[in-house]
Amino acid sequence: MRIFVIGGSGLVGSNIVEQAESRGDTVRSTHLDTQTETTDIDLDKTDAGRTQSVITDFDPDVIVDTAAFHAVDDCETKRNRAWSVNAAGTRNVATAANEAGAHLIYLSTDYVFPGDPEEIPYTESDRIQPVNYYAETKYAGERAARIADEVTILRPSVIYGTASQNFVTWALGELEDSNELTIVNDQISSPTYAPDLAKVCLRLGEESQTGLYHSTGPESMSRYEFTVVLAEVCGYDTDLVKPITTEEFGQEAPRPTDSTLDSSTLYDAIDYEFRDPESAFEELR
Ligand SMILES: NC(=O)c1ccc[n+]([C@@H]2O[C@H](COP(=O)([O-])OP(=O)(O)OC[C@H]3O[C@@H](n4cnc5c(N)ncnc54)[C@H](OP(=O)(O)O)[C@@H]3O)[C@@H](O)[C@H]2O)c1
């Protein structure tokens, strides 16, 4: 399979590149600001012409678009940039996918749901109500991705791993330095292990499976509980992890209270179940 990964320097993208290369796929991947060992092309997907030309040159079977402006709080103030990357940039990729006759896999988010604890777990047919501006642009990205003739849209949640900077690498650094961490205990979701998400992208691409799938880990927990499990499994003092409410924490953008997704349609479609945080942390420690 010829696979083109947009955002190959990122957490999910670098896992896809690594797994695809070890399977023997022909891979090209892109970075924006951070060139890494896994990327060989610089690309800003807001540039329609360059997006078209790098994709046409490579002529992929599958494109995975992991690229996003996803600093959730910054999206509230840098609205033009958020829209141009997450919505308009995705439209550029979808248009280029059609020109190349490629299958597009687009990563969206659980934040497209309002996060009402009475509605969970959300299924693919549930009402969309983006919770903040980031989510609004990602939902616009979903609609843009649908321009592609062959498209798969995945909705993961709190993606973690070790391949590049993310919540878990930050928390491990703090725990290692014996610093206290205050973590919100009233934002619940189903954390998603990046290597599992990468595996699923490759499998869906290989099997040409299109459609909309929730694609999260199997366990629902608060950020605080997630961090306590991390500390426990990795042998750190769990008392360093302190709970705080969202109100006390004071984030710029609203967050869903509980955005637990039902990912059983995906699990059934590909006969694969994501790992829970405890087993994932066992693997990465
Ligand atoms: N992380 C989460 O918890 C989470 C949760 C739900 C959904 N998602 C979605 O999942 C996807 C992957 O997330 P991730 O954690 O792997 O993200 P990440 O680690 O931040 O990686 C993002 C990648 O996109 C690239 N990029 C950023 N802006 C770009 C642009 N304008 N044009 C081309 N490339 C650009 C970055 O390049 P440089 O690094 O070189 O600048 C990087 O390679 C995103 O679409 C995100 O919205 C993430």
In the CATH scheme, what's the topology name?
A: Rossmann fold
The CATH H-level superfamily is NAD(P)-binding Rossmann-like Domain
- Strand arrangement, major sheet: 3-2-1-4-5-6-11
Helix content: 40-55%
DSSP helical segment count: 11
Tell me, what is the CATH class? Alpha Beta
Q: Give the N-to-C terminal Cα separation.
A: 32 Å
Domain RmlD-like substrate binding: 1-276
Organism: Halobellus ruber
Pfam families: RmlD_sub_bind (PF04321)
Keywords: Oxidoreductase
Describe the structure.
With 285 residues, the chain is an alpha/beta fold. It has a single domain, classed as Rossmann fold (3-Layer(aba) Sandwich). It is 41% helix and 16% strand. It is built from eleven helices and 13 strands. It has a seven-stranded parallel β-sheet, with helices on both faces. Helix 4 packs parallel to helix 5. The site of NADP nicotinamide-adenine-dinucleotide phosphate (NAP) has 30 residues, from helix 1 and helix 4. NADP nicotinamide-adenine-dinucleotide phosphate binds next to helix 1 and helix 4.
Q: Can you lay out the helices and strands and say which pair or pack?
A:
Blueprint: E1 2-6, H1 11-23, E2 26-31, E3 41-42, H2 48-58, E4 62-65, H3 72-77, H4 79-100, E5 103-107, H5 133-145, E6 151-155, E7 159-160, H6 167-176, E8 181-184, E9 188-189, E10 192-193, H7 194-206, E11 211-214, E12 221-222, H8 223-233, E13 241-244, H9 246-249, H10 264-270, H11 277-284
Parallel strand pairs: 1-2, 1-4, 2-3, 4-5, 5-6, 6-11, 7-10, 8-13
Antiparallel strand pairs: 9-12
The chain binds NADP nicotinamide-adenine-dinucleotide phosphate (NAP).
